[in-house]
TrEMBL record:
GO biological process, one term: maintenance of mitotic sister chromatid cohesion
Family membership noted in the UniProt record: Belongs to the DCC1 family.
Name the record gives this protein: Sister chromatid cohesion protein DCC1
Organism field: Thelohanellus kitauei
UniProt xrefs under InterPro entries: Dcc1
Pfam families cross-referenced by the UniProt entry: Dcc1 (PF09724)
Assigned keywords, A-Z: DNA replication
Amino acid sequence: MHQQRVSEDGCVPKRSERVYNLEFSEDFERFGNEFFCLELSESQYQVLKSEMLFKIVGDENSTPVLCTEKQTFALKTVETSNNLLVVDNTFHATQTPQGSSRPHQVLGIEHSKLQMFETKPSEQKLRDILGAYPYQGPQYEPKYRNDVLSLEQLSEHMQCSNSQLLDLLFGMPDATSLDGYWRVVDEHYLAKCVVQICNLVDENQWDPEALPNDDIREILSSLYSRGIIDLALEVCCHVKSETDPYSLSEKKVARFYAIYILHDAKRMVLSEFYSTWQNLLPLGFEATSDHLKGVALEDEENNTITYFPKSSLSRNMADRFKQIFSMSEKWRKSQLDPYIKEILDKNQTLDQIYSQYCHKHTQNDEIYYTLKPVHNFIF
């Protein structure tokens, strides 16, 4: 809409400017209570136009978000430098003749607007929600009967799109759908099933590269539901399809046992941890530091290991770097990479992010990073 300039003495505006006949509508007072103005970029407009269906969720304790089927946008209020007149949809600045005698209705005046910023859901928040009613076995289910959430309810609690929620759920090694509800399986309960699978492999001298899937399910069916057995197989095996033989994965089994040991202990003497870890692994599997990347932080100088899963960290890049370097002032690149890779945007590289947040050092041909002062972060 073209604005009208009026001089201090009330003179008629310049000829080059347009003049329109406006009046306040009868519903003017109601507008601010029932509507808000949302500013969209062209790309955001195209997203909403193509999706057609979207929802806005949130409450007084959280930032509202707009969810499409595949994306989530945080909605933030931004003050406007000028008041915005909201006019009825019969008015168009470039098509309405100036000086038109027919008045146009001013529906409201807005002093602020909403803007959309793409955001991603937090795995830690999802874990906190699902962790309130973990699956511990059929005997414990009555106490959680009224707590479990459907996928749609879970999406509203998480304030994210269904597609993003499913991506998170499928990426969580201890989450599965049981009786139509997504659950996190208690680590001790799941560990029992994993241990029994590994024991079956040893006892029956099965080829770790070609496990008899159906035999395993049949043997364990009296102890666990099909969903739990399949989850345990996914936790410790390479799974191609239900019909192909599963192969026992050294990396998956090793990481599972490392998390199982450290989850409750949080911190251990490094040598004791490695001894316990190696004793739990199936014959032929080796406990190595490569299996701990993104799971725990080894401190060889103090002979300690600390549980530090990447899933517990913020998805905000600056906050994540602060959390990481609060654990240790100096990180090897090989240690740091797994904690940063998962939250890179499509057009970002590790080198770009490290130059923004870190100082680079080389010691004995190995690259280390230290954190820049927060006020020196480059944005």
